[in-house]
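for the recovery benchmark. tokens below, seq after
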């Protein structure tokens, strides 16, 4: 999966929440204020082993 797809999903994700991605990380299958909410939403989408990410309050640029 192209990095740009994952980046777009993360940029559009609600801040300070849990998001669930499909196994191939190509689509957002769940989100919620708790881990359990995101997992439950992913399961209703038919994804039993989602990739869970906790989003920060604010995305900050990183310069190396």
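predicted aa per position
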């Amino acid at each position: 999966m192209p990095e740009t797809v994952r980046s777009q999903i993360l940029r559009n994700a609600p801040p300070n929440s849990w998001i669930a991605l499909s196994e191939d990380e190509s689509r957002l299958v769940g989100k919620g204020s708790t881990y359990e909410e995101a997992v439950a939403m992913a399961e209703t989408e038919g994804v039993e082993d989602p990739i869970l990410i906790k989003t920060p309050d604010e995305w900050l640029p990183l310069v190396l």
